[in-house]
Design goal:
Alpha-Beta Plaits; 2 domains; about 230 residues; alpha+beta; two-stranded antiparallel sheet; elongated; nine-stranded mixed sheet
């Protein structure tokens, strides 16, 4: 019988740590668990591993203030103690923001994640950007070609776009979007950017574009709920 206690951690990944890949981040977190002396649970079998599950990998070079990871501990601990122990052993650029305890039967974050918020900054002023985004949102279908495993297919990405909100008041163009992110449907923000730029007759200059991932959500009966809310899932 598994008597482990399940916790969900929300953490940020910014600054120089955005250049740490997902597999390296996993190994890094495994070592941090040991340094923090947390009673992390292990799987059974000939090759036991720490019970750590990420919601969805963060692309290399992208920052985030809403990454989610589930862990299992062999004993119950105070949530603030877990947070403090980890942060004391984490480098600048990675910080645990909050910890919640889950009911053990709660679906893993990897299975539950459905949408994500992104804040995208274009370091160029586009005065007609609102009009471009309105054209995107007015479309009922948006077909693009995607190549996966050397096979090219045409897909409709419009159902994967939940909302886009533009802030065009400063010296740069910034917009927030909520798009499908998970195993049931996934739209990379870079793909959305390529389509938006195609409407403007340009190609995106990724060197002059910042992408920040925010809150990750699950979906229940059409309603989005943060994977790591401020209150416990109890």
């Amino acid at each position: 019988m598994n008597n482990n206690i399940k916790y969900r951690l929300e953490f940020s990944k910014t600054d120089r740590m955005i250049f740490i890949g997902h597999l390296d981040l996993l190994k890094f977190l495994q070592r941090t668990m040991k340094r923090a002396k947390l009673p992390i649970g292990y799987s059974w079998g000939y090759n036991p591993h720490q019970l750590i599950t990420f919601a969805i990998p963060l692309p290399l070079g992208m920052s985030s203030v809403g990454e989610i990871v589930d862990i299992q501990l062999t004993q119950r601990m105070d949530r603030d103690e877990i947070k403090n122990r980890l942060n004391e052993n984490l480098p600048e650029g990675i910080s645990v923001l909050q910890v919640i305890e889950l009911e053990f039967r709660t679906a893993s974050c990897a299975a539950a994640v459905a949408y994500a918020d992104y804040c995208i900054t274009l370091y160029k002023k586009y005065d007609n950007f609102d009009e471009i985004i309105n054209k995107v949102l007015e479309k009922k279908e948006i077909y693009i070609e995607r190549t996966v495993k050397k096979k090219t297919k045409t897909v409709d990405i419009r159902p994967l776009i939940r909302s886009i909100c533009v802030d065009n008041t400063g010296d740069v163009t910034e917009f927030n979007c909520n798009i499908a992110t998970g195993s049931q449907g996934n739209l990379k923000p870079e793909v959305l950017l390529e389509y938006i730029y195609s409407l403007m007759g340009e190609s995106p200059d990724m060197v002059r574009i910042d992408i920040l991932r925010g809150t990750l959500y699950t979906e229940e009966e059409g309603v989005l709920l943060p994977l790591c809310p401020e209150e416990e899932f109890m």
